[in-house]
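Section: Multi-chain targets

For targets with more than one molecule, the full set of components is provided together so that the structure can be written out for the assembly as a whole rather than chain by chain. Components appear in the order listed by the source. The example entry contains two components.
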Amino acid sequence: MSEVRDDREYTQTHEWILDNGDGTYTMGVTDHAQELLGDMVFVELPSAGDEASHEDEFCVVESVKAASGVYAPADLEVIEVNEALDAEPELVNSSCYDDGWLIKFTAEAIDDLMSAEDYADTLD
Amino acid sequence: MKHTPLYQAHVDAGGKMVDFGGWEMPLNYGSQIEEHHQVRQNVGMFDVSHMTVVDFKGVQAKAFLQKLIANDVDKLKTEGKALYSCMLNEAGGVVDDLIVYYLNEQDYRMVINAGTTEKDIAWINTQAQGFDVSVEPKFDLAMIAVQGPNAREKVFAAMPGVEEVAGALKPFNAASLGGLFIARTGYTGEDGFEIMLPEKSAEFTWKMLLEAGVKPCGLGARDTLRLEAGMSLYGSEMNENISPLEAALTWTVDLSNEDRGFVGRNALEVHRDKGVDKTIVGLILEGKGVIRDHQKVVTALGDGEVTSGSFSPTMGQAIALARVPMGATGSCEIEIRNKLVSAKIVKPPFVRNGKVLV
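Its structure, encoded as tokens over all components, is:
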């Protein structure tokens, strides 16, 4: 059974969003997503300062099996990317909710996120 | 979906089961990369029971196979000797690739791909009209491939009597032991056996191999292993519209006996005389990313296409097989998500027997 953490919210496309409480958010892919994709071998991230529109494919995580887009949950500006993934993309497998985070961003509003409970229900 | 006799064993071992051409097969049992390394460095086993064994028996078995396939079974003179070949259509396209084993002049065994089985058997039966040969698909056989530098030793430890009959087998040769057919062949670039056995023995044999320390490996690792080994996959490097001459498989086409009119021969000769303008090469990505099937390859001689792209666990880099203009060498670029990423053209294989060769 995939892990879902109740300290954060989720998208239908299997990303998690953590509100850092200071106007910034951290984002990554869920345990379910990393399990589906399998061993990660490459993560393509934007740069700090890049802007993305809601639903843009603005990151790509690639496993041995397939490339999978990561979508912007809102109009946002990237403020930091997880540089560690460059050398260790497998952090997305081993620690998708902690060390395997993808980016930090600022956004004015994020609509349509699911609670942990609702997201877990979609996985059944 | 169809299941092999080892389906329950895969589920019990935590296999991630996926639809593989109508068969529910294990993609991996946790980590595809670990399974890949297991085979390169030690030993692993694959359930390949979805592949089909077909026996050919009769006074015209040899004559028929000399017509059916592009390589010449006349090369096979000793019991158990194997030959890799393509089976062509009249246009010279590849109906399937296969291995054929010689038992005697009136008895051959062939292994064909799972996804093409139905069409292959229909095709073979059509071609067999007028020949005194029986075409016998053996759907009651399972097949386990045990591969890796320690594969033979583990098989001998797990399966009593096998060392006596298969201990001295050279690569690309097979031996029988009761209902077992043990071939020193594989699809990984490592030493090992492909063992055909009655389906009722499959689970027990799998368990004995597990107990001897052989780890199960999924079809994901099988694909990256064969890609590193530079081996073609039917449907990727070749298909019904592509001739072996454009798939770097000219070595499997035997035109030496001018009297042997195998199916597709005329088309191949016309193609050869007109000139073959594409072939399969290896690619190593120099920039970042992963190469995927069907991406565009830009060379100095024109564009090509990736036929099999993935990540090489042994090399830690993205690699691919690609069909490019004949004669393309040196550097090229691969279009990955609308960006051109530089790559190097190499001659496959990338890896054999645990060693990187490029």
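The first helix of chain A runs from residue 31 to 37.
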